[in-house]
Amino acid sequence: MTEFVIGQIYNRRRDIHDRFGGQRQSGIVTPAKRPAVFIFTGRGRRHGYDDEWSPDGTFRYFGEGQKGDMTLTKGNKAMANHAVDGKDLLLFEMLEKGEIRFRGPFNCAGYSFESGKDQHGNARKAIVFHLVPIADEGAEIEPPPPLPAGASLDELRKKAMAAAGPAKESSRQDQTRPIACVAKLSVNMS
Description:
alpha+beta; PUA domain-like
């Protein structure tokens, strides 16, 4: 079992890829047979990505694809479907020399297609995911209710993720401040 601590620095190769696998060069990593999607931010401007915090408290995360229009395939699809697929969405910030800082677990509240530039400066449609932190660092979280007799936490987690459904496209005009989450999903990787 591995646990990531918000704010702690890790080594991307050793602590992510050597332990869990997944694409080593991508900003969206989908390790096989692990219940997580690892996403990395902090070095994308040269490729046309401009991840940032919004005034409403969401994190605007640009999808993958360096040239041409982005599509809802591969890592982008994994992000949009992380909840229905039963996978945690874990955000890391790229630092220096392979170091990464864990920024926490997030939920994908939706996505939009926006005009932007690709790595060659050509106009394109980019997918921007609207991510909601599951809990702010240091936030008080209401404890979950007791489990029903005979139900395991894993069973209940799977039911909750399935009920969430995949993220949907949203328009920037329709966005409102996200509702705060009351329960934190497990960040444990077994």
